[in-house]
Description:
CATH class of the largest domain: Alpha Beta
Radius of gyration: 19 Å
Shape: globular
Helix content: 40-55%
Structural class: alpha/beta
Strand order of the largest sheet: 1-11-8-7-5-6
Bound molecules: NADPH dihydro-nicotinamide-adenine-dinucleotide phosphate
Amino acid sequence: MPMVIDGKAISTQMKEELKQKVADRKAQGIEITLAVIQVGKDPASSVYVGNKKKACEYIGIRSLAFELEEETTEQELLSLIGQLNERADVNGILVQLPLPAHIDEDKVIAAIHPAKDVDGFHPQSVGTLCIGQPGFVSCTPAGIIQLLKRSGIEIAGKECVVIGRSNIVGKPMALLLLRENGTVTVAHSRTRDLKEVTKRADILIVAVGKPKMITKEYVKQGAVVIDVGIHREEGNRLCGDVDYEDVASVCHAITPVPGGVGPMTIAMLMHNCVESVKLQE
Ligand code: NDP
């Protein structure tokens, strides 16, 4: 049986540490505030936003909710972000994605002040990550680094393969593994002979967005497998991009879905909110 990397337990541990940091800040008279903007009423987005608000409440961060109508114009949204950028009592700004089709997401992300970009999606945040300067890091890949470190898995010198090259998961994941001195390969839909590439991995990060695509044929015996995917199967059960039962028979360690990467994303958002105070100082 492989080691099951328990994202729920690790995220709880992180949230307890953050709770203490928030309390310390409060004792210095500093209240940390996150502004959360949702446009429209997409049910999945509402669940994510609700979970973020709950996490804020739990660790003692004040959250301000801006629930805007689906018909909100791009200009109205940009103007709200402009006001929040100016507000000294707002430390972090989060715009829940996806946005309705009539709003340009890239423009919206770029409008958030980099010192308040707690999602780590702003081009400046991506740039600082790339050149190793302080800045916010996208929450899901940052959470994966914490999962590995807190499970005692060494990254330095390891063959790391990331499947997926999205701006929010694959690319920042590759940069973070490189920062931790892994030897990194990024695979994508145009990669030739994917199995040959993934079988080199000591650490395989799967962010391909295809339910249960990765079976044991893609995995080296004894590898560590991190499953970023999240999908709803028939019967409403959740599953990942990895065929868990199949891969568990060959790997050394694996993240489950649910209870692996998912809970870490919110914990890292909370971490970024706490760090925002330092960046703004
Ligand atoms: P995207 O759809 O943006 O990216 C998927 C990537 O996989 C692309 O780079 C694509 O390549 C590559 N890909 C697609 N098909 C193949 C294939 N057959 N072989 C090799 N590569 C392939 O997804 P995201 O990065 O946004 O998310 C990935 C998964 O993670 C999704 O299931 C998403 O729901 C989940 N997710 C979970 C989070 C969490 O908190 N747990 C947070 C964010 C995402 P190409 O670039 O060539 O098209």
